[in-house]
Specification:
The chain is of the alpha/beta class. It is built from 17 helices and 20 strands. Helix 9 packs across helix 10. The structure holds nicotinamide-adenine-dinucleotide.
Length: about 525
């Protein structure tokens, strides 16, 4: 029997279109709320056996899934490109390669990362007590991803959840449903036990049904607006959620930076995936004295970029994923124009294509009072503003409701570290840009409205387990001083405890011993 259940056809289908050509990529049956609920229940049953598997067994399944992925890599890259509009080159470099790395890392290291450990309990240890911490899986993890990295984000989260001993139900984005189903097929071909990974298909209502089905955790990637709805709906069942939300990520370029590298990084950071990355460079702040030179290099590089359909190996910028998204880009570019910014290149849909192509757009004279410098654009725009001091650069970068990633460019490493530490963002790169989601070993998540909780790294793994504290009294011969009945002697003991034992000081605590002994003897009477 199949390891992965594609929930059967009910009312409707989702049709997946290639945003570069408008051609139909395929159709997927939509799951009804009852089917979503049934999937979560099956996931809960499967959890009972899966949670008992050893880390070595889980490792073997994930490494097998990795082999399946490698053997179908080109076909999968093409599917991702067809559904999302991104170049095949980016499907390989920004989705498949990083998730393969994440898979091997968590397959091999989850046991070590979740190893039970002893906790230092200070003076309690002198009373013959010890504490250790172990980690238990949660149960069923519901994964609701966005469409912009439709393969690597849900697959990476599923791998981490499985390695931690959970089962998974994924509701892929309605814009990329076939890529979601492909994830299920990979686990099926790796012979994962039935119902450990299930895919349910549909749009927002299906995602809402998954939240209502009360899985044991929701891992959500998407907009702030949907994140708030999910947090509110999840609260009804006290389901905890990790929210990976939007960004308006700043790039700060100081005058002493390597301008050739910084200009290349800005172009890639702003335009890869047609700017539809939560960690895209959405605002560039450059020190006044080098603004003209940096801008010249950025515009020159931007004009050399080849835009086209994702299937061509020479395409660097593909189509955008939806009409809704391209309309936001148009609105923001109009806002920049109307507010007095200058469009240096781009600034329109690409007239060579009928699909959803927006030209890579470089904008100068931008400033933080412009609406488009505050709202997430999620498109191929690179607005440039200037600053004159380090403190001003930090202030401008932090002047945002978002705080996902940021980058700082300087040859002065002390300045790089100093500035990075003052930026309000979950990940800050010094002389690098955008790609840290690809480092599965490191935590990923946002400050402020960019999210709650973390994926990836040990911190991300901790979201997928519940810690259990086991406390043992190894010399259980006498009653504890704080037991009942209370008395004047008890109160005197507790009063003295506040200034001795509760300071953590062994020397001070020795002065408590006569009183403590008196109290214990009182209890033994
Ligand atoms: P979205 O919020 O519209 O949709 C995201 C997912 O939520 C989709 O699968 C959708 O079907 C589902 N959904 C919609 N309404 C729902 C509801 N009421 N209940 C449950 N599920 C519901 O976002 P999008 O347009 O797909 O993605 C773009 C956003 O994602 C951007 O803001 C981007 O910054 C963000 N993003 C963040 C990260 C990150 O790691 N922080 C990564 C990628 C994308």
């Amino acid at each position: 029997m199949s390891a992965v259940i594609q929930v059967p056809i009910t009312n409707d289908e989702i049709v997946s279109y290639n945003p570069a050509t408008g051609a139909e990529v395929g159709r997927v049956a939509q799951s009804s709320p009852d089917e979503v609920k049934a999937a979560v229940e099956r996931g809960r049953t499967a959890f009972q056996a899966w949670k008992k598997t050893s880390f070595a067994e889980r490792n073997a399944y994930i490494m097998k899934a990795r082999e399946v992925l490698i053997s179908e890599m080109d076909e999968i890259a093409r599917l991702i490109s067809d559904e999302s509009g991104k170049p095949v080159a980016e499907a390989l470099s920004m989705e498949i390669a990083p998730v393969l790395d994440l898979m091997q890392y968590f397959a091999r290291n989850t046991e070590k990362l979740l190893k039970p450990s002893k906790i230092n309990i200070g003076l309690y240890a002198l009373l013959g007590r010890s504490s250790r911490i172990t980690y238990h899986p949660l149960g069923v993890v519901g994964i609701i991803p966005a469409w912009n990295y439709p393969f690597s984000i849900p697959l990476g989260e599923a791998v981490m959840a499985l390695m931690a001993g959970n089962t998974v139900v994924i509701k892929p984005s309605e814009l990329t449903p076939l890529t979601g189903i492909k994830i299920g097929e990979i686990f099926e071909k790796a012979s994962l036990p039935q119902d450990c990974v299930q895919i349910v298909s549909g749009a927002g209502a299906t995602g809402a049904a998954l939240v209502d089905a009360a899985p044991d955790k929701i891992m959500f990637t998407g907009s702030v607006a949907t994140g708030k709805k999910i947090a509110a709906a999840a609260a009804k069942n006290l389901t905890s959620v990790v929210l990976e939300l939007g960004g308006k990520d700043p790039m700060i370029v100081f005058a002493d930076a390597n301008l050739e590298l910084a200009s290349g990084a800005a172009v890639w950071g702003a335009f890869c995936n047609s700017g539809q990355s939560c960690s895209s460079v959405e605002r560039l702040y450059v020190e006044e004295s080098v603004a003209a030179e940096l801008t010249r290099r950025i515009v020159e590089k931007t004009k050399q970029i080849n835009q086209g359909t994702g299937d061509k190996e020479t395409t660097s910028i593909g189509a955008m994923s939806s009409e809704r998204q391209i309309a936001i880009v148009e609105d923001h570019v109009e806002d920049f124009r109307a507010a007095g910014a200058k469009i240096e290149t781009g600034g329109r849909r690409n007239p060579e294509f009928e699909g959803l192509f927006y030209e890579p757009t470089v904008i100068t004279n931008a400033n933080n009072d412009m609406r488009a410098m505050q709202e997430e654009t999620f498109g191929p725009t690179l607005p440039i503003a200037t600053f004159s001091t380090e403190q001003e650069a930090i202030r401008l970068a932090n002047d945002s409701e978002f705080g996902l990633t940021a980058s700082v460019w300087t040859r002065d490493s002390a300045k790089g570290q100093r500035v990075a530490a003052q930026i309000e963002a979950g990940s800050v790169c010094v002389n690098e840009v955008l790609y840290t989601h690809g480092i599965g070993q490191t935590p990923w998540g946002g400050f402020k409205n960019s999210g709650r909780g973390r994926t990836h790294g040990r911190e991300g793994l901790m979201e997928l387990v519940q810690p259990q504290h086991i406390h043992t009294n190894h010399v259980a011969l006498l009653p504890d001083a704080w037991w009942m009945p209370y008395s004047a002697n008890a109160v005197a003991t507790f009063r003295k405890m506040t200034t001795t034992f509760a300071t953590g000081s062994l020397i001070k605590t020795t002065t408590l011993l006569p009183q403590l002994w008196k109290r214990i003897m009182e209890l033994r009477k």
